[in-house]
Task: structure prediction
Amino acid sequence: MLTIATDIEAMTRFGRALADPIRCRLLLLLRDGPAHPADLADTLGISRSRLSNHLACLRDCGLVVAIPDGRRQRYELADHRLGHAIDDVRTAVLAVAGEPGCPDAATEGCC
Result:
């Protein structure tokens, strides 16, 4: 059984990963399957060094892993359940945002 501290740590790591739009885009791309850093950088339109920093953060959070692939590495989600979690969070937030009375993203007080 997980402790509350472990639960909070896991949620904090996931929140840290989602706190940056580039990391969100990376998670969405990796949800669709493994990819090499050069391809990810090209798709995102960012430098490889900037991508490397974001991938390091996602690795530190335990959300992605680097798999040796010949002389290169490919990245993938650390667990297939993360893809489902990403989809669940995304669809839940979109559903709540569409409900009457939810603050519009353009209004003050919205995250």
